[in-house]
Amino acid sequence: MSQSAPGAPTNRESGADTAPFDALIIGAGFSGLYQLHCLRDKLGLRVQVLEMADDVGGTWYWNRYPGARCDSESHSYCYAFSEEIYREWSWTERYPGPAEIRRYLRFVADRLDLLRDVRFETRVTGAEYDEGANLWRVHTDDGRTRSAQFLITAVGCLSAANIPKIPGLERFEGQWAHTGQWPHEGIDFRGKRVGQIGTGSTGIQAAPVIAETAAHLTVFQRTANYSIPARNGPLTEADQQTYKDEFGDLRRIMHEASNGHPFLISQRSARETPAAERRQVYEQAWEKGGLRFRATFADLLVDEAANETAASFIKEKIRQIVRDPETARKLATIDHPFATKRPPVDSHYFETFNRDNVSLVDIREDPIEEITPGGIRTRSQEYPLDVIVFATGFDAMSGPLLNLNLTGRNGLRLAEAWTAGPVNTLGLQVAGFPNLFTITGPGSPSVLCNMPVAIEQHVEWITDCIAHMREQGHERIETTPEAMDKWVRHVNEAANATLLPKANSSWYLGANVPGKPRVFMPYAGGMARYRRICEQVAGDGYTEFVFDA
Ligand code: N01
Question: How confident is the model at residue 17 (pLDDT cuts 50, 70, 90)?
Fold first, then answer.
C-alpha cells in the first residue's frame, strides 16, 4: 500500500519538525487539509499534518476497488468554504470516482499551498497527553516524536478495514484483497474465478465491474440490500456552469438540509399520499437515480408503514429486473426497513445477476465454513476461486480513533474510556483528553450527512474554538463526564426517534464487527440541528467544556 502514485508529493522530515507545534493534525483527506488551511492561514498557527499514505485523499487514497465512486453528487462533494475555489474546479461526471477526487484534493492543496506542511508516509503509532507541559506527544513509525498543544484527528469514519476472521484465509493460494486496501496496480480478473464477500455500498458497486471481465463471479451475500440506480453520466459544460452559477443557493440548501445534500427533502407523507400518486413519485425518483430517492417523502425514516411503501417498491423492482426467480427471491428477501442501513446506489447491480458468469450464494442459508487453499467452502459445497474480494466494510467511526493508541490525562487510554462504546461531547471531545478534537467522531452527524458539509462545519467550529482560546488566553479545553452523558443521551434519543436502530446488522451500530459494543454511533438528529446546537454551545461561552481546569 505504500506504492508511490506518479507525481506524488514526497515531503519528509526536517529539523524544524522537532520544536513543539501549535497543532498536529492526523490525516490528509478532506478534513485534515481544510483544518490545516484554517489553523495555519486564518489563525497563523504553526501546524503540521501527518499522513500515512504518500499522497492526499484519505478514504479516496485507499478505496480504489473496481467501480468505486462517491454516492454524493460531485457538485456537492467538494469544499464550499470558498466560492472562488468552487468555481475554479469542474467535475466531469455526476458522481466522482476516486481518481478525480484525488485530483481535486491535489488541486485544492496546491491552490492553498498546503503540501509544505504535510508529512507523507508518516504513520501515527500512538500519542499521549503530557499534563505538566500541556502538550500532546505524538509518535510515528519512523521512530520520531513530535509535540503540539492541540491534537486533531482527521482520520475519517470508514478507514479501518474489517477483514473477517474466516478460518483458513492464511492458506488460500489465490489472491485476495479488501476493497478499502485495494492494490494500486489493480487486480486483473480476466479469466479468473472470483468470490466476493459483502453486499454493502462497496460490494454493490464492485460486482458489476468485476463481472465484466471475470470468468465467473460468485457473490456471497449475508444480508440482502436495497439499492437505487445511480444513473451516473458525464456532466456537460452547461451542467458545470449551472452548478457554478447556483453556488450560493446550493450552499444554502446544503447547510439547511438535515442530510447536507443539495436537494430538499419533501415535506409530504408517504403514508398519507394516495397509492397511485406515491408510486409515480417513486418511479420518477428511480429514474432520476441516486440518494434523492430517500428524500421523496418526509416520513420514510420515522414511520414503519411509510417506509414499507418504499421498501416494497424497491423489492418489486428487484423481482422485475432479476430473471431467475430463486436469485430474485434471495436478493429481495431484505430483513430491515429501507435506508436503516446506509442505502447503496448502483450501476446495474441487480442486472448483473442476469449474466451467465455470475451467481449468488445466500450465506444465511448456506454459511461459509472455511477458506480452503483453493476457494471458499460453505456448509453444502466448495467454490473453487482464484481471487477473493472482501467487500466487508469497516470498523466504523470508533475504529480509526482507537487504532491511534491515544492516552489522555493520568494514563487513561481511549480504549478504556470507550470500553462500553464511544462517549464524547458533540462528537468532538472526550473527557480526560484535553486539547484533543476528533473531526467527524462518533456522536457527530458525519456519515448520515454529505461528508464535506459535515467536515467543514466541524473544522470551522474547532478553528473558532481555538481562536476564542487564544483571544481569552486559555491554554486548555476539555469536556466533562456530565456533558458527555448529556450528549450520549441526546444521540440515543435522536436515533430512537427514527427507524435507524432497527437494522440489526448495521455498521452504524457496530454490529458488523464481532465483539464491538452495540451503540448507535452517528448523530441522527440532522446536520442543521447539530449545527445550531454547536453554535449555541459556542455562543454561550463553550458550555459543556471547561477551560484551563
Ligand atoms: O461496508 P458495509 P461497505 N461474512 O459494512 C458483509 C461508505 N461507502 O464497504 O450486512 C460475510 O456496508 C456485510 O454483511 P451484513 C458508505 O457509507 C461510500 O459496503 O453485515 N459477510 C455487508 O454485506 C457505506 O455504507 C461510498 O450482514 C460479511 C458487507 O460485508 C460504507 O462505506 C461507496 C462479513 C459490508 O457492507 C461501508 O460500505 C462505498 C462476514 N464475516 C462505500 N462481514 C461512497 O460513495 C461483513 N460482511 C461515498
Answer: low
